[in-house]
Amino acid sequence: MDDFASDTDSDYTSYWRDWFISSRGNEYFCEIDEDYLTDRFNLTGLNTEVQYYQYALDLVTDVFDMEVDDEMREQIEKAARHLYGLVHARYIVTTRGLGKMMEKYKQGTFGKCPRVICESQPLLPMGTSDTPSVSTCKLYCPKCEDIYNPKSSRHNSIDGAYFGTSFHNILFQVYPALLPPKTQRRYEPRIYGFRVHASAALMRWQEERREEMKQRLRGRGMETGFEGEEEEIEEADEEGEGVGGDDQIDDMFEGAAAVQ
């Protein structure tokens, strides 16, 4: 019996990273290269953030051979998962790490955008803070540029610091061809085919503000990023759908209230 337990522990410690990556709920993580984990420069400062740091590092790098009781092993295992997550945030902004995450992104490992107009655009994991235990992992859509909660509770409980606030932006800087074209399409509330008055007025006001912003950007010789909707704005101007601003929208709302 003791020999069997010893063999099991040996196998477990020999393949810790394989076990971690293949565990359910850890699909967002990529495997960190061993040479990256064994380079102490890449681990700078983490010894003060991780309890049982050396034991945890030994477990992650498959050299842990110390016999400990179940309670201590559980604490070391928890520390190892935390250490791996913190190193992971650093690794995925390296050339090798970006390449691995790019493949996961192209395969749709992180899910699709729930926004209908984004047409199942693949998502990327991100954190809203680089500090551990502040916020959980979110999913970023590069098409609508919004963030969403993961569907699975397992993914929703991952610390956002394990991906960081910069990874998704760096990925598209390195691989600009992966950046999808932005969409300016929006859902328009309608009743029997007619746009709802208050929403339509607000949308027309937003379109005017967007046009003003584009004119300012062009004046500075900068890309507007909204070229795809030029024809729509011109058609709206021809139909006379523009409104003057906040005061006119407020007047519309007040008029509607007076009628009621």
Task: Give a summary of the structure in a few sentences.
The protein has 260 residues and is mainly alpha-helical. The chain is built from eleven helices and five strands; from the N terminus they run H-H-H-H-H-H-E-E-E-H-H-E-E-H-H-H.
Description:
- With 260 residues, the protein is mostly helical.
- Helices cover 48% and strands 5% of the residues.
- The protein has helices at 2-14, 16-22, 34-37, 53-60, 70-91, 95-106, 153-156, 167-174, 197-219, 230-238, 246-259; strands at residues 124-126, 138-141, 146-148, 190-191, 194-195.
- The strands form two sheets. The protein has a three-stranded antiparallel sheet with strand order 1-2-3, with no helix packed on it. A two-stranded antiparallel sheet has the order 4-5.
- Helix 4 (53-60) crosses helix 5 (70-91) and helix 9 (197-219) runs antiparallel to helix 11.
- Give the ordered list of helices and strands: HHHHHHEEEHHEEHHH
Q: Please identify the structural class as seen in this structure.
A: mainly alpha
Low-pLDDT parts are: 1-13, 240-246, 255-260
Report strand %.
5-15%
Oligomer: single chain
Tell me the number of strands. 5
Task: Give the N-to-C terminal Cα separation.
Answer: 82 Å
Chain-averaged pLDDT: 82
State the strand order across the main sheet.
Answer: 1-2-3
Major β-sheet profile: 3 strands, antiparallel
Quick tags:
about 50% helix; about 5% strand; 5 strands; about 260 residues; disordered C terminus; Casein_kin_II_reg-sub_N; Casein_kinase_II_reg-sub; single chain; Casein_kinase_II_beta-like; Casein kinase II subunit beta; mainly alpha; three-stranded antiparallel sheet; protein kinase regulator activity
